[in-house]
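As agreed, record passed on underneath.
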Amino acid sequence: MAQSDLNVLLDMGFDKERAEIAIKQTGGLQGAVDWLDKNQDTPLDEIKASIAAAAPSSSTGEATDDPTAASLICNECSKKFRNQAQAEFHAGKSGHTDFAESTEEIAPLTEEQKQARIKELRERAAAKRAGESEVDKQEKKRNEEIRRKSTKETQDAKEELQKKEQIKEAEKKRREKAADVAAKDAIRRKIQEDKDARKAKAEADKAAREGRAAPPPPSDSPAAPVQAAPGPSTSKPASAYTETRLRLQTSGGNVMKSFPVETTLFEVAASLGEESGVVASSFVQNFPKKVFDQVDFGASLKELGLVPSASLIVK
């Protein structure tokens, strides 16, 4: 019978060594299933050590048993057991402690009873596995939901941080651009003021030499009006010119050329290179002394004060 019970347990999916220990400890299929269920999480080595430690006391107890005893009975629930191992298992599971020997022999199960019990145990084992499988599915589903939620929250946080960084960067660029525009405007105003002052002085000196009245200075010019003899004015402000005439001194000779006042110094250098093959890296003005390098190439002739005419040395 033990071999048959073992086969049933193996068919139910239990480990062979655990099933053999369960049958030996409980003496029957029903007890073995309960024992396996109770000890499923206990390591096999621990189970073996516990059995080995209990063996001496069990042997001593069997030596003092009454030879006429055919079974053991639980006085608390009146359940009968074939041997001491089954009684000990029942005590561990139910918590009952009041046991006594009985002369009543437990009749073995009939073949029909045994088949019915086997069917019941298989159904219980299948239901247990199904329940565990469902629990595993639910747990897996919960873990997946937690993972997705965590991933989404992390992604949302990253996107929000990126948006903030982009806004900060755009604001920084706007401030830098505004500061750059303001600085360029200030430079242009300063250049224009210097140019107007030089022009006013030159025209005043010329008018004084010719014995005529100097033209009135611009309204926003800080220069004081120059008193001179009355006479007509023939000059006009630099802002009124639409074209400037440049005298470009190169190693191969002088180049006279006119350009619109909005022409950049870069365009002047490019035109000079196309016509005479001269590569200009900078321009030098002797009066007033100024050097226009690559930084100034993006500015127009009007912004650089080279209107209505100028003489530049090509370097």
Summary: Residues 58-66, 221-233 have pLDDT under 50 and may be disordered. The first helix runs from residue 2 to 11. The chain is about 55% helix and 10% strand. The CA atoms of residues 71 and 83 lie 6 Å apart.
